[in-house]
Amino acid sequence: MKKNLNLLILAISALFNWGCQSGSSPSTPFTMELNQNWQFRNVGNDTWSSATVPGTVHTDLLNNNEIEDPYYRLNEHDLQWIDKEDWEYQTSFSVSAEVLSKDKVALEFLGLDTYASVYLNDSLLIKTDNMFREYTADCKPLLKEGENTLRILFESPITIGLEKYDGYDYKIPVSNNDLAEIGNVPDGKYVSVYTRKAGYHFGWDWGPRFVTSGVWRPINLKAWNGFEIEDIFIQQKELGEKASMLAHVEVSSLSASEDASVEIMVNGKSIKTEAVKLVTGANKLSIPFEILDPKRWWPNGMGEQYLYDVEVKLTNKNVADSGKKRIGLRTVKLVTEPDEIGTSFYFEVNGHPVFMKGVNYIPLDLFLTRVTDERYEQTLQSAVDANMNMVRVWGGGVYENDVFYEKCDEKGLLVWQDFMFACAMFPGDEAFLENVKQEAIDNVKRLRNHPSIALWCGNNEILAAWEGWGWKNQMIEEQSQEVADKIWKSYQDIFHKVLPEAVAEFDGDRRYWASSPSTSMGVPESATRTAGDMHYWGVWWGKEPFKNYETVMPRFMSEFGFQSFPDFSTVQKYTAPEDHDVYSEVMESHQRSTIGNVTIEEYLVRHYKQPKNFESFLYVSHLLQAKGIGFGMEAHRRNRKHCMGSLYWQINDCWPVASWSSIDYYGKWKALHYRTKKAFEDLLVSYEYTDDSLKAFVISDLLEPVEAELKLTLMDFEGNKLEEVGKAITVKENTSEVYIELMQNKLLKGKNKKTVFVVGELVQGDKVLNQNIHFFAPPKDLALPNPDLSYEVKEAVDQFEVTVKTKKLAKDVYLYTSSTANFSDNYFDLLPGSEVTLSIPKSAASDLAAFKEDLKVMTLVDSY
Ligand code: BMA
């Protein structure tokens, strides 16, 4: 059936090309994705099994029922043999005489993971060694009319890694995120750094170890006559009353052509046609054009994400080719200039300083090819729903698929883009540097048209490791000064030369930042917190109190985080009931931080009463994480004069695991994600307190001032209003200010701190613009009453609705279902005598009765 379809496509394209040759219309390029008829086998095995391309060895074995679910219980540990083997993939495809008669026929490989030898009709076509690069190989001489065979041999990345490791006469420091021990790699040899492959495939402190292989992005057969557009870059030169643009068009031409012309279309309208001459070989055309009355692209929360479709058509009398790019017009600058504190570090978008509210992102699955567009949509929409405007694509994963950046463009999420280097030093021989250079060029060129990309960053935490974690001295002590110098030279070659040169040459308009965290090229984060970006892990790794988020104040917080367990419904998917103890072997295996469970527990008892059982423990771990990170986000925002960004670690998971994520592997929002949505509202009431005083801030990310009243109400848990303070204020645009400061003893007037709380509201008429609550004691010390909570469930058109009512204060109301759908709000405090209606998509249950049966509602008092 599939084969018939292929033949039909070929027949149609042959017809089309026949039309071209008759002279009726110019010849256009032919493209066919080779994603059919694939088979795979372990090298040395006689039998082939069916394979999915793009795909991975592990997912193909799974689809053929040859292995069990790699994420279930301890299965990961039994599947470590797969990456020690070599694997072969093959397909056959049919080529018409018509396609073969084209001047140029090539195979394009958009992603081979990683050590691949590609054979076309049994002749070696190309060998590759970098999963992040795109390769194109002329194949006309090897191709024949009719059936052709393409075979790809993937050599074990572990075997080759070990050869490389043993070939070096010095050791390269690598963090223990490389889980060599789980991988049964002899003598704990860290092989990850020798291979240009996603770092997290080798394990991480939130990830499994599966060093997979496979065709992870499409393979295309391409054929063309005359010339082909190889790349289009639509560069914004100036943006004001009009936008001055430059279309850079790279063309490969087989002959000189005097009669070609380029046409530029914007949103389907032709706006410029220019005659061009093509020379034989590579051509770089630059066509200036203008967009009048430009509509700007804004980050989420600041305005519309207007996008322009720009099409470039290149024709002469025989040939036509074209390409489209979707662009946005905006200015983005990283401002690092001397100021009264030290050196600033903030992003200025369309002339406005913007506080970055965001998050770090890791790949959505260990097996990249099973991430659907829907998963990208859910994750990035969740970022938008939580009022974020920036996502950092972290350097231990991958340069993401185009669809990721397209969605960021559409949703107004600025991207802090790391190059793929994290937590390890790297080799620096000539071949390695050349490989990195080509990787950088490929990815900068692929991504530079996206308005969402704000920054290129060289690496994650490598400078911090070398200077701060002591790697430099360790190398000098354990090896020699000479080895340390050699390793540092490799660092400088990659991050101070190869990468910035690629950015400057191919994307001159965007800033390059060599390492996160750092204060500038080669200088780690400053102890004085006056410059650069910071990863603050004193909370978590250092066991410091959450309160320290108020005092450890950088210019830009690009990482901070705290772990929790996944939702119970997720835990049930990878465990059996007998595993339901956080210290069970299975739960421990799905916890990759060396200090994970004990650290969660240690913080938990600082703030909460000991949970009564496993399920309650998971729930309270969510509350704890939300409390800590929420406190940090608000502190950063209150201090926006000093700090202009708050990106917590991390939005998502790549398998079901205890981790720092705010959304678990199955898409369930943890309490932290709901907390983030509130902490990142454009207008926010926020508190700073000591034992004596309480300061109420209002933070605004809006570009206009707001007239409103700030009201603070002291209430007891039964709902009695004890005190009220109000003030008419003008909330200045893009600021954080204290509007009310109170001495606690005057406010409390002898009331017990464990029995009262403050409700702060920013009010405009009868509209509440923002509400935030302050408690005077940690949750474990609050004298919480039984809230006397009730709820009703209703079915609406495309959702179920739950109305929750309470008589007394209901703290941390949690609605649980076993489905992966999320409620419109969850883990919230419900004020005495109030009610709220929440919704959840219908997908949560088969019908209303099943939903009612599945739904559980609890509050903090039920957890102990
Ligand atoms: C940061 C990240 C990751 C890591 C996380 C939690 O440093 O860059 O390397 O997973 O901390 O430890």
Summarize it.
With 864 residues, this protein is of the alpha+beta class.
Structure description:
The chain is α+β, with helices and mostly antiparallel strands. It is built from 18 helices and 43 strands. A hairpin with a 2-residue loop joins strand 15 and strand 16. The longest helix has 26 residues. 45% of the residues are buried. The N terminus is likely disordered. The structure holds beta-D-mannopyranose (BMA). Beta-D-mannopyranose binds next to loops.
Key structural traits:
binds beta-D-mannopyranose, 864 residues, 23% helix, 32% strand, alpha+beta, six-stranded antiparallel β-sheet
Q: Can you count the beta strands? A: 43
Helical content, roughly? 10-25%
Question: How are strands sequenced across the largest beta sheet?
Answer: 3-2-4-10-7-8
| Arithmetic mean of pLDDT | 96
> What ions, cofactors and ligands are bound?
beta-D-mannopyranose
Poorly predicted segments: 1-23
Annotation field: number of helices: 18
Gyration radius, rounded: 29 Å
* Termini gap: 60 Å
Present the secondary structure layout.
Layout lengths: L1 H20 L8 E4 L5 E4 L6 E2 L6 H7 L11 H4 L8 E9 L1 H4 L3 E6 L2 E2 L2 E5 L2 E6 L6 E4 L7 E9 L2 H11 L46 E2 L3 E6 L2 E13 L2 E12 L3 E10 L2 E10 L2 E12 L15 E8 L4 E8 L4 E4 L10 E4 L2 E3 L1 E6 L11 H13 L4 E4 L8 H10 L2 E5 L11 H18 L5 E8 L1 H7 L2 H8 L2 H26 L4 E6 L17 E2 L21 E3 L8 H7 L10 H5 L6 H12 L6 H25 L6 E4 L22 H9 L3 E7 L3 E8 L5 E11 L4 E11 L3 E9 H5 L7 E9 L2 E9 L13 E7 L3 E8 L3 E7 L11 E3 L4 E7 L6 H7 L1 E3 L6
Parallel strand pairs: 23-24, 23-30, 24-25, 25-26, 26-27, 28-29
Antiparallel strand pairs: 1-12, 2-3, 2-4, 4-10, 5-9, 5-12, 6-11, 7-8, 7-10, 13-14, 14-17, 15-16, 15-18, 18-19, 20-21, 21-22, 31-32, 32-35, 33-34, 33-36, 36-37, 38-39, 39-42, 40-41, 40-43
Helix pairs in contact: 6-7, 8-11, 10-11, 15-16
